[in-house]
């Protein structure tokens, strides 16, 4: 109830703002708008049409617009449109006023030519900082770090440090941690704003700082940075180059996005559909789901030709057709389960991961156990139903083998893909279950034709 | 490469620590251990056997042990074991030294009787705070909030505020935000540590603070709190009761865990297996995956009896058996996709969600489009292959209808469960695809028997 009330108030605020804007009460409008949180300002901006947005751009300074853009979600197409609605000089100014990691994110998604135009229009110092960030891979620590930060020298007094923070706080994305570097720019310590506040004014930074700093290198994967920040409960982690020089920091807000995105992509992988955009437009939804379905349809056709190959057998024993979907379905389910576990296990950081050999042996045994237990169950069920325990044994044996194979496919395919450097999450659930249809049918009909004489 | 090097150093540290402990160089051991980050101390503690852990407990004060326990992951069984290895008084002291949200989390997972023992042994003030937290639902803002915080009064000077922060910083989980309350304890503002540092010493808190505070109520779902913190880029959000009095705050580190857990549970749901614990013990893994598999096996048996019901038809036209797995498999894939999209859509906060009617209409049309396009494709493929376009039409029509139905099941079942108050994520992918095996076979054989005379 309470959240709904809150939402309604926000809606009302937006309605009022829109009226103020349309009736040209510009000064009141501007004052009330800037009174909102940056995030809400951004949500209002997004809710406008192109004319409204242009009007707002005229009204706000590049700095005010930049604060707002820092909170906008990363929808590439939208941001491109917004930039194109602005004068190039204005857009460039706004980008240089933003936190430079966010500006780099936006520019990375633009055409190289377009982003160069903006960079050329910016103050050179800002442009160079952003260019340096754009040069790291988007999924690495370097790609998500900011260089808008304050660092301190070890022989500074706490009083002078406070003066420096007061002076430069506006330029930094966060001042909750201050990193300490020596005169070679090597990272030698960290001190929190809380420690600075509590320390005596005449103490030296080096006497208060913590010397053991956990840091990351710019080329490591963003999910490993997320793991570090999560494990230690940090609000930020410093990034150092190969000479241990401080080059940036990754803050917790960027990490939350990383965790969300990775979860989304694992989930999308398992489902065989990109769930990033849950648009309710049927045509868009169709276009997103169809490619996988049609691709797998061809794999399914292969299974059909395989069954067709056994038409003589099927003609003689049409009872076999009764159990096709039971065997393929159950094996597919087992394959999906083991796929999910394997992908999740591979997402763990290296030191938490069991060794490759251990994983393989474990999955081989698990698949065998699951296969045998399920196979025995189905053997009894079919034997009782058809009063034919030899038929039951054929179905049970086929089921056990099919599950075992599907289970191994579900765990070994992502494992192999990971070792080859692909994202294991792209082996989707639908792919594994369609593949296991093929292997299950192959196993089933071969076992059946071997033992046919005994159960007919 | 670099991360591996880091890990190795940590391993070496642990080896060295273990040696120091075993050779009874107790003072060196204690010094080096406490030099580590709390998280690493905790990891070392976990890596020990029961004897080692007891030795460590003897060596560390309850406060030192509490700092370490604050970083331990939430594995219920382990934490219970650790507590039982301690003297009850020591354990109670340690719990009262921990951040009270973490202590409440641990106690909530214990037997009521056991947790009462610990609470009775604690200082009453701490016990009461923890009891109050335990009374909120574990998945709500109240369940994850902390009450270890500093609040300020509006007429305090910045200088006095700094003095208060210096004095109480140790008791608070974070001092990055200080919330301002009036003398009725009503939340009236927020001020960041950075703003305090930058403000003139003689200014009043009320002149520097931001008056528009985004807050949450204790009973709202933790995922909505996560959304708020994420959207606004906050490091914490205050929790207020129905009279707008400040009762606690939720910090970003707890939110990261919430986001991770929710993603995990959506993923587990889709896979039909709990991927929380990726243990490599085959027996444990089997026991976790088997219940779903066996349950679905019975649903699969229903499909088998259905096919059996059509045995006369199958005897006359064994060609029909060739396409069973193609139709059930493809429909199952479509169902899994729409399930994933539906679950994800339902996870959005209410104001981002399209209306129920809109979602249903959209899915009906999407399913129809996907069904028709896939059906036409398969009709052409089968027609060409078998040189029989009437057979192709039967398969295509069955496929289109089966996909349409599976698609609706995948989206409407979670939607219905959500409306009935269940977690939509428990409708697993394997369940939807096994259910769609049943409906697909029903559709396929009915269409085939209606049109049989024309294609044979």
From TrEMBL, chains A, B:
<comment type="function">
    <text>Acts as a magnesium transporter.</text>
</comment>
<feature type="transmembrane region" description="Helical">
    <location>
        <begin position="425"/>
        <end position="447"/>
    </location>
</feature>
<dbReference type="Pfam" id="PF03448">
    <property type="entry name" value="MgtE_N"/>
</dbReference>
<dbReference type="InterPro" id="IPR038076">
    <property type="entry name" value="MgtE_N_sf"/>
</dbReference>
<comment type="similarity">
    <text>Belongs to the SLC41A transporter family.</text>
</comment>
<feature type="transmembrane region" description="Helical">
    <location>
        <begin position="319"/>
        <end position="343"/>
    </location>
</feature>
<dbReference type="InterPro" id="IPR000644">
    <property type="entry name" value="CBS_dom"/>
</dbReference>
<feature type="transmembrane region" description="Helical">
    <location>
        <begin position="290"/>
        <end position="307"/>
    </location>
</feature>
<keyword id="KW-0812">Transmembrane</keyword>
<feature type="transmembrane region" description="Helical">
    <location>
        <begin position="390"/>
        <end position="413"/>
    </location>
</feature>
<keyword id="KW-0813">Transport</keyword>
<dbReference type="InterPro" id="IPR006668">
    <property type="entry name" value="Mg_transptr_MgtE_intracell_dom"/>
</dbReference>
<keyword id="KW-1003">Cell membrane</keyword>
<dbReference type="GO" id="GO:0046872">
    <property type="term" value="F:metal ion binding"/>
</dbReference>
<protein>
    <recommendedName>
        <fullName>Magnesium transporter MgtE</fullName>
    </recommendedName>
</protein>
<keyword id="KW-0472">Membrane</keyword>
<dbReference type="InterPro" id="IPR046342">
    <property type="entry name" value="CBS_dom_sf"/>
</dbReference>
<comment type="subunit">
    <text>Homodimer.</text>
</comment>
<keyword id="KW-0460">Magnesium</keyword>
<dbReference type="Pfam" id="PF00571">
    <property type="entry name" value="CBS"/>
</dbReference>
<dbReference type="Pfam" id="PF01769">
    <property type="entry name" value="MgtE"/>
</dbReference>
<keyword id="KW-0479">Metal-binding</keyword>
<keyword id="KW-0129">CBS domain</keyword>
<dbReference type="GO" id="GO:0015095">
    <property type="term" value="F:magnesium ion transmembrane transporter activity"/>
</dbReference>
<dbReference type="GO" id="GO:0005886">
    <property type="term" value="C:plasma membrane"/>
</dbReference>
<dbReference type="InterPro" id="IPR036739">
    <property type="entry name" value="SLC41_membr_dom_sf"/>
</dbReference>
<feature type="transmembrane region" description="Helical">
    <location>
        <begin position="364"/>
        <end position="384"/>
    </location>
</feature>
<feature type="domain" description="CBS">
    <location>
        <begin position="145"/>
        <end position="208"/>
    </location>
</feature>
<keyword id="KW-1133">Transmembrane helix</keyword>
<feature type="domain" description="CBS">
    <location>
        <begin position="209"/>
        <end position="265"/>
    </location>
</feature>
<dbReference type="InterPro" id="IPR006667">
    <property type="entry name" value="SLC41_membr_dom"/>
</dbReference>
<dbReference type="InterPro" id="IPR006669">
    <property type="entry name" value="MgtE_transporter"/>
</dbReference>
């Amino acid at each position: 109830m309470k959240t709904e009330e809150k939402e309604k108030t926000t809606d009302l605020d937006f309605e009022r703002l829109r009226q103020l804007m349309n009736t040209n009460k510009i000064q009141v409008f501007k004052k009330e708008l800037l009174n909102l949180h940056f995030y809400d300002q951004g949500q209002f901006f997004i809710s406008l049409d192109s004319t409204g947005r242009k009007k707002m751009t005229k009204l706000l300074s590049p700095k005010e617009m930049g604060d707002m853009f820092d909170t906008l979600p990363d929808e590439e197409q939208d941001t491109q449109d917004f930039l194109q609605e602005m004068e190039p000089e204005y857009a460039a100014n706004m980008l240089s006023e933003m936190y430079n990691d966010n500006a780099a994110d936006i520019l990375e998604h633009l055409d190289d030519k377009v982003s160069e135009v903006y960079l050329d229009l910016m103050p050179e110092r800002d442009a160079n900082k952003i260019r340096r960030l754009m040069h790291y891979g988007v999924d690495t620590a370097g790609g998500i770090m900011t260089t808008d930060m304050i660092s301190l020298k070890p022989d500074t007094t706490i009083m002078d440090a406070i003066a420096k923070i007061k002076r430069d706080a506006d330029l930094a994305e966060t001042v909750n941690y201050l990193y300490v570097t020596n005169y070679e720019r090597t990272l030698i310590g960290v001190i929190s704003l809380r420690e600075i506040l509590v320390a005596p004014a005449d103490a030296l930074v080096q006497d208060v700082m913590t010397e053991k700093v956990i840091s990351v290198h710019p080329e490591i994967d963003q999910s490993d940075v997320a793991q570090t920040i999560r494990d230690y409960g940090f609000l930020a982690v410093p990034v150092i180059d190969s000479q241990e020089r401080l080059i940036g920091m990754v803050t917790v807000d960027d990490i939350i996005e990383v965790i969300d995105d990775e979860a989304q992509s694992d989930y999308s992988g398992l489902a065989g559909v990109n769930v990033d955009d849950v648009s309710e437009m049927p045509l868009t939804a169709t276009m997103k789901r169809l490619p996988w379905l049609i691709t797998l349809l061809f794999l399914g056709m292969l299974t059909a030709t395989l069954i067709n190959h056994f038409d003589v057998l099927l003609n003689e024993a049409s009872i076999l057709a009764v159990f096709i979907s039971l065997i393929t379905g159950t094996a597919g389910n087992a394959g999906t389960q083991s796929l999910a576990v394997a992908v999740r296990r591979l997402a763990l950081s290296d030191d938490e991961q069991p060794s490759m050999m251990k994983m393989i042996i474990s999955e081989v045994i698990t698949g065998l156990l699951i296969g045998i237990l399920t196979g025995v169950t189905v053997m009894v069920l079919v034997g009782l139903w058809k009063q034919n325990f030899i038929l039951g044994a054929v179905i049970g044996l086929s089921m056990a083998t099919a599950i075992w194979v599907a289970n191994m496919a579900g765990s070994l395919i992502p494992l192999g893909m990971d070792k080859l450097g692909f994202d294991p999450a792209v082996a989707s659930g639908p792919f594994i279950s369609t593949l296991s249809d093929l292997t299950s049918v192959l196993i089933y009909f071969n076992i059946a034709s071997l033992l046919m004489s005994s159960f007919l």
